[in-house]
Amino acid sequence: MKINPAEMPIPKLHQYILGSVSPRPISFASTVDAEGNPNLAPFSFFTAVGSNPPMVIFSPARSGRDNTTKHTLDNVEATKEVVINIVNFPIVEQMSLASSPYPKGVNEFIKAGLTPVASEKVKPFRVKESIVSMECIVRDVIHTGDKGGAGNIVLCEIVLMHIDDAILDADGKMDPYKMDLVARMGGEYYARIIPSSIFVLPQPKTEVGIGVDALPAFARDSHQLTGNDLGKLGSQQTLPTEAELIAAQQQLTSDASSESICALAASLIREGNVRMALAVLFAAAK
Predict the structure, then answer these.
(1) Contact 97, 41 (CB under 8 A)
(2) Which of 44, 108, 117, 283 is most buried, judged by most C-beta within 10 A?
(3) Measured between alpha carbons, how far is 165 from 259 in angstroms, rounded to an integer?
(4) What pLDDT, on a 0 to 100 scale, did the predictor assign at position 106?
(5) How far apart are the C-alpha atoms of 121 and 236, rounded to whole Å?
(6) DSSP states along the chain
(7) Which residues of 209-218 are buried (b: 16+ CB within 10 A; e: fewer)?
């Protein structure tokens, strides 16, 4: 399937984009208008973009139906302040209710049954029930267009964060197992980050892996090894040592096929023995 955005109706294109760029965290944005009236609305065009200075962005897009702008956008342009509250599963239904198209002036805190708490550095309230709230100064608003569906990127500098102590571990770090986060997908689909969906993947911050291109050709072309298998092998920082190659030879038979060798390597990877899997492949290639 190929999509040319210029040839597709915006509502349909919108769903393909949202379905592809997912899951997305949700910015539950609290603002006030020029008269101080509160507004609360969720936006899943949201991410962090830097830590020095601490910056996050979200985008209240123009309506694809009638090209109107969100009250949130009007408010941040008028006051240059916003509080971004993080959404987790215990408040996801209230968050959804707050997204209803209430008329200007309606207080979504009241409609959604959420508790407004006075912020310390900005005028908008924060959501008491949220596990993390970020008081922000709006540094800029970038309008990507003037037609329905166009984005409005709100560049926010965090001036104060509020973090629920209940989601911290013994070292004071955020514990993803305690956060019960939710994220937006395409259409009406959401994702819930439950313990079984969380995994650890060490990042190569200073180390350099040998790379998939360093693996024997028969391994790179094998149907037994998945992309993840190749990634784990290529992430090894050194080629097999002579001792590792000698140990690997003991697991090989003289008549073993390339595919059976790769199947053995895949099995070793599943067992967590990536070094031996690497050595088996190189021993077979000698």
Answers:
(1) no
(2) 108
(3) 52
(4) 95
(5) 48
(6) ----GGGS-HHHHHHHHHHHS-SB--EEEEEE-TT--EEEEEESSEEEEEETTEEEEE--PPPTTT-PPPHHHHHHHHH-EEEEEE-BGGGHHHHHHHTS-PPTT--HHHHHTPPEE--SSSSSPEETT-SEEEEEEEEEEEE--SSTT--EEEEEEEEEEEE-GGGB-TTS-B-HHHH-BEEE-STT-EEE--GGG-------SS-----GGGS-HHHHT-SSS-HHHHHHHHT-SSPPPHHHHHHHHTT--TT--HHHHHHHHHHHHHTT-HHHHHHHHHHHH-
(7) ebebeebbeb
Cβ count within 10 A of residue 76: 25
Judged on CB neighbours under 10 Å (0-12, 13-18, 19+), 230 is middle
CA distance 199 to 166: 21
Q: Which two tokens stand for residue 72?
A: 């949130």
- What is the residue type of 154? V
pLDDT at position 127:
98
Q: How far apart are CA 131 and CA 179, in angstroms?
A: 8
Q: Considering only CA atoms, which of 84, 58, 72, 48 is closest in space to residue 160?
A: 84
pLDDT along the chain (286 residues), means of 10: 93 93 97 96 97 98 87 97 98 97 95 98 98 98 93 97 98 97 96 96 90 96 96 96 94 89 96 96 91
Give the Cβ contact number of residue 254 at 10 Å: 4
Whether residue 53 is preceded by a cis peptide bond, meaning omega within 30 degrees of 0, is yes
* Separation of alpha carbons 260 and 60, rounded Å: 54
Q: What are phi and psi of 283, to 5 degrees?
A: -65, -40
The verdict on pTM exceeding 0.70 is: yes
